[in-house]
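Submission sheet (multi-component)
Chains listed below:
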Amino acid sequence: DIQMTQSPSSLSASVGDRVTITCRASQNIDNYLHWYQQKPGKAPNLLIYGASTLYSGVPARFSGSGSGTEFTLSISSLQSEDFATYYCLQSYTTLPYTFGQGTRLEIK
Amino acid sequence: QLQLQESGPGLVKPSETLSLTCAVSGGSVSSSSFYWGWIRQPPGKGLEWIGSFYPTGKSYYSSSLQSRVAISGDKSNNQFSLTLRSVTAADTGVYYCARGDSSAWNYFDNWGQGTLVTVSS
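Outcome: structure written.
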């Protein structure tokens, strides 16, 4: 199975800060990497798919980059509603999909 | 607008079978552009993909669960189901159903609200 290593596991930041979260795959996954935001008690929401495409309705302060084995999610200017947990998901083939362990983004 | 709604028992006894259904509205489980999946989340932990069902009738499962799990579709009722046998306390968590977009990058774009399943005697 493809392993996804997400870092950091937690992050403290302030409103207006720029933050970056990283996911590394144990083997090449092309651009089959997607980012989700989850708030407590809610289902995850898709932010970025195909490593860098912004999903409909997602604010432009979110961006994704990378290909192959290393990927990043960036938030350019944190807003209060962005404090949540973020997950990456790889879906390279029909072999098992795997999520990263999650990054909890907290207010400093 | 697509909506997904999970349903099933909230409490299952150890060693018994967990069965959940996801009702789909605003879309069709038969559409060739999409597939359907189950994802779970133990309390306070991360997300785990359980498996996916395709309109062709084919299903794919997590390596760790494949000996106990089955996902199937019901076109007549526009829903799909999860069966997990021989459950233990480790199977406790929120279970989500989701739609996968198979047109390009295979991502889950729409999720149900989730249903909490507790395994306990």
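Remark: The interface with chain B takes residues 1, 31-32, 34, 36, 38, 42-46, 49-50, 53, 55, 87, 89, 91, 94-102 of chain A (CB under 8 Å).
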